[in-house]
Amino acid sequence: MERLETINFYLLDKAIRTYRMYSQKKLKENGYKITVDQWLIIKVLMENPGVSQQEIAEKVFKDNASVTRIIELLVKSKYLHRKVNPKDRRTSILTVTPEGEDIIEKVQSLVLQNRKIAQTGLTLEELENLNATLKKIIKNCQSTS
Question: Fewest CB within 10 A of the end CB: N or C in the chain?
């Protein structure tokens, strides 16, 4: 029977989870009161203005209930503004506030530093191969579902 440490997808998941824990620790150590998931949601909204909450959930790989909770915290922290959509009162229009843009800008250098540390010892070619491989896996799984 194969050992967990030899399964590519186990290692991939472990790498992602380890990186997220490391990133969250660095955010906290540097005095930022934002989580990795909150950062992701703000980034999605900055890059995709007017995106629906369902689309946010898909982009950050979270269920709708988790995204709802995170958005609520971001609104309370004044990083997001939420108003009722006049065209469909069941939905909200979310916008990033100046405070939200500011926290993303402040955290950006730390995000880049975290990535640099995580990728230490990897060549550009290795990173390009990794990206190509991951894109193939994604395509394979999407085309069969």
Answer: N
Cα separation, 82 vs 91, whole angstroms: 10
Mean pLDDT across 17-32: 96
Instruction: Give me the numbers of helices (H) and strands (E) for the chain, helices first please.
Output: 6, 2
Structure tokens at 116: 């640099």
Q: In whole angstroms, what is the distance from residue 143 CA to residue 35 CA? A: 33
CA dist 131 and 145 (Å) reads 21
Model pTM score: 0.85
What is d(CA 106, CA 103) in angstroms, rounded to the nearest whole number?
5
